[in-house]
Amino acid sequence: MEYAASTPDQLGQVLKSCRKKRQLTQGAVGSKVGVRQSQISVVETQGAKANVETLYKILSALRLELVLRDIGDPDSTPGEW
Predict the structure, then answer these.
(1) CATH number of domain containing 20
(2) Is residue 66 situated within a structural domain?
(3) How many structural domains is the chain composed of?
């Protein structure tokens, strides 16, 4: 299944949704990859404050991957986040 996230806040919500769908707590996700529960919480609620390394650890724990793709007309103005 694919999930689109165009902003840091959306990314946090997608990760939270995937975690809950897998019936995992923040602590369980963190313990899988050596990240504190508080860091999982920050990523889920304040996505912009996540560092890339932590993000990839969470993606790994949830068995997700990051995919980048073009979203449209290159002459259009990029969206703000």
Answers:
(1) 1.10.260.40
(2) no
(3) 1
- 68-to-31, 65, 71, 74, 80 alpha-carbon distances in Å: 27, 10, 9, 15, 17
In a domain, 2, yes or no: no
- Residue 12, by phi and psi: left (phi above 0), alpha (psi -120 to 50) or beta? alpha
Does the model's pTM come out above 0.90?
no
Domain that holds residue 36: 8-61
Calculate the CA 18 to chain-centre distance: 9
pLDDT tens sequence across 38-80: 999 999 998 878 889 999 999 999 999 998 888 776 665 556 5
Q: Which two tokens stand for residue 38?
A: 């508080």
